[in-house]
Amino acid sequence: MILLDQVGKEIKKKHILKSVSTQINQGESIGIVGPNGAGKSTFIKLIATIIKPDTGRILYKGNPIEKSVKAFRKQVGYIPQDIALFEDFTVKEQLSFWKSAVQLSVSDDYVQNMMASLDLHSVEHQKVKELSGGWKRKVNVCVGMLHNPDILLLDEPTAGVDLAAKDDLIQWLTSLHHAGKTLLIISHDWDVINRLCEKAMVFQQGELIFHDQLDRLNDIEQNLRLDHNHQELVKILKQRMN
Ligand SMILES: Nc1ncnc2c1ncn2[C@@H]1O[C@H](COP(=O)(O)OP(=O)(O)OP(=O)(O)O)[C@@H](O)[C@H]1O
């Protein structure tokens, strides 16, 4: 459904992504892993059309996404790693503001359901600046999902949240995945990846070195987790890709 064909990105003369070619099918749930600075966020920003590739093409259902950016963005929910909320708004005001800003017919039922799944009713009258980091992250996820997109691009959705909030998020994302949504999730938390994803992509120094079923990765999970011996790891993963 989304095809990347030799996509490259250079920032300040540095190759951030090097000729990435891959395909993401509808309804898949893919965990994106790799060491800091490997290019994971850049990869999903390109799909979210936040930034443009310098080389290669990104196609959605066979058409280049830059030809119909507006229509494509309606399908995509991008939840950035950094929290971008109005601190002086209450949670309710925040959601109302963004709901009118996206100018799409979002049903009240959908919003209420999303708030209930993330337990946000309990803080709806609190100002964002009064919330802990975990609550802010849940509101951030809600804002990115207000237009009920089919493709969810989540950059560290559970960073800084406590175990209960993490469970809420995982359960809710699981229900969305079961409803047929496509999920791409960057996370350094293997519990999140294992509970949510069927497939994994591994990035290393701007290269996509593995994209396959998650269970083909689990036996070397410990190596990835410890993030050492990269050369050996890269060799193993590249062999598995062939
Ligand atoms: N706007 C920018 N200006 C300069 N360098 C950038 C910019 N955006 C990304 N980079 C660099 O590109 C590389 C890849 O960044 P990216 O955020 O995609 O990595 P990542 O795998 O998501 O890392 P992390 O796990 O730490 O979030 C890093 O070295 C980063 O410093």
From TrEMBL:
Question: Looking at the Swiss-Prot or TrEMBL record, what is one Pfam family this protein matches?
Answer: ABC_tran
Mind telling me which CDD domains this protein's record contains?
ABC_DR_subfamily_A
Gene3D superfamilies associated with the record: P-loop containing nucleotide triphosphate hydrolases
Ranges for domain ABC transporter: 2-230
Could you state a single Gene Ontology molecular function term?
ATP binding
Q: Spell out the InterPro entries in the cross-references.
A: AAA+_ATPase, ABC_transporter-like_ATP-bd, ABC_transporter-like_CS, ABC_Transporter_VariousFunc, P-loop_NTPase
Q: Which UniProt keywords apply?
A: ATP-binding, Nucleotide-binding, Transport
Q: PANTHER family annotated for this entry?
A: ABC TRANSPORTER ATP-BINDING PROTEIN ALBC-RELATED
Protein name, entry field: ATP-binding cassette domain-containing protein
